[in-house]
Amino acid sequence: xxxxxxxxxxxxxxxxxxxxxxxxxxxxxxxxxxxxxxxxxxxxxxxxxxxxxxxxxxxxxxxxxxxxxxxxxxxxxxxxxxxxxxxxxxxxxxxxxxxxxxxxxxxxxxxxxxxxxxxxxxxxxxxxxxxxxxxxxxxxxxxxxxxxxxxxxxxxxxxxxxxxxxxxxxxxxxxxxxxxxxxxxxxxxxxxxxxxxxxxxxx
Length: 203
Hints:
The protein is of the alpha/beta class. It has one domain: 3-Layer(aba) Sandwich (Rossmann fold). 37% of the residues lie in helices and 18% in strands. The protein has seven helices and eight strands; from the N terminus they run βαββαβαααβαβαββ. The chain has helices spanning 26-33, 56-63, 79-91, 96-108, 124-135, 154-171, 182-185; strands spanning 16-21, 45-46, 49-50, 64-68, 142-146, 174-178, 190-195, 198-202. A six-stranded mixed sheet has the order 4-5-6-1-7-8, with helices on both faces. It has a two-stranded antiparallel ribbon with strand order 2-3. It is globular, with a radius of gyration of 17 Å. The protein starts with 15 loop residues before the first strand and ends with a strand. One of its GO terms (molecular function) is transmembrane transporter activity.
């Protein structure tokens, strides 16, 4: 069991936060935010709404999206088809508007020329950019990124860090990234350290 004490923390739209940990707790925090675990006490409030009152489908479609260290893409599909499938699963819809949105997002992450290639032919950095675009197919305003550069080299780490910072600042997205990577963390607007069961917000 992991217990957080003095965990009152306010997170603001348009900022990119990075959680760093020198103890246990990061994975537990992310699982609570994603509603994979329920806290025994306390609550998480998003835009005035208790997280516990939000249905799983609403959470995925319009509140919170996620990217992972190992991307979790479908390897025999193209980036475009990965995005369209995610939209259909998350929102229960598919159509021309979703394709337009998917192509816009792939352009936003610099992958227009790879939109129709199989994702297993892309580099690790390119696959992570596909994963970021896929996460944004809904209207979620919070992006959870668990070790998003853990499998990347320094150049791709820098690219992904700058991309997430741009998305936060230009689109009002809240990016909460869990990492042990000081290079990635250097681009954060604020650091939330998890130490001795406490969340410590540093500007």
